[in-house]
Amino acid sequence: MKSVQMIMMNKPLTKVYGYLYNWFALANIAATGWHVPTDAEFTNLTNLLGGESGAGGKLKSTRTSPLEHPRWNTPNTGATDEVNFSALSGGYRVLDGRFSSIGSNGVWWSATEFNATYLWYRFISYNTSNVSRYYNNKKLGYSVRLCRELISGEELLTDGTYVADYVGNDLKTYKAVKIGSLVWTAENLAETLYNDLSPIPNVTDNTEWSVLTTGARCAYDNNEDYV
After folding, report:
1. Where does the chain have alpha helices with state H?
2. What is the pLDDT along the chain (227 residues), one digit of tens a residue?
3. Number of domains in the chain
4. Which of 32, 43, 107, 215 is the most core-located residue (most Cβ within 10 A)?
5. Rg of the chain's alpha carbons, rounded to an integer?
6. Sign (positive/negative) of CA torsion 15, 33, 156, 165?
7. Measured in whole angstroms, how far is the alpha carbon of residue 209 from the centre of its chain?
8. What span, in angstroms and rounded, lies between the C-alpha atoms of 66 and 158?
């Protein structure tokens, strides 16, 4: 069997899982008109899809191992991607800087604080069709999606309809999809610039990551092929 590394070397990958970001990067990461979804907006999304029990499957990409990355590990329970959100399991970075769970878990920040130390987020796993709502330390590295309000005419579109791409601050483009009362990016962010065009630091050192109180990004395992 080919290793993941060999497969990825032979395939040009773009916006596969995106970067992982700490909370401090979120405030100025979205281009004009877009924002990091609030806890309430994530709740509205999962409620639209029948609630936390089952909504994960409806949000997950159907790409499953043994397909090459990007994909979920088997069994990718309940995956239908019925609204083209195409959630992928980008893993995360823990407080001490180590990486965990690519292929198994996808974790997305909300913009809503639980308190001064913790932030609400959403979690989807390869072996359940649920979406889980938790809070955790702002210093962790999680994936990011963006959303915006509908513009005239989009309210008539069927959920899951692609609309004009989101264009990031560094001019990368991302698929965007109408779901409910919002348009969502249908890919994880791989943004390298804030909206004032200053760089989002790429922090690879574990110790440096663990003590950050300013914004930062990283590729999973510090391997840009995963981005």
Report:
1. 4-9, 39-48, 52-59, 206-210
2. 233 333 333 343 345 899 999 999 999 999 999 999 999 999 999 999 999 999 999 999 999 999 988 999 999 999 999 999 999 999 999 999 999 999 999 999 999 999 999 999 999 999 999 999 999 999 999 999 999 999 999 999 999 999 999 999 999 999 999 999 999 999 999 999 999 999 999 999 999 999 999 999 999 999 999 99
3. 1
4. 107
5. 16
6. negative
7. 19
8. 32
For residue 8, is it within any domain? no
Within 8 A by CB and 6+ apart from 125, the residues are 56, 89, 104, 105, 106, 132
Task: Tell me the one-letter amino acid at 24.
Answer: F
Any domain includes 21: yes
Instruction: Sort residue 62 into left (φ over 0), alpha (ψ -120 to 50) or beta.
Output: alpha
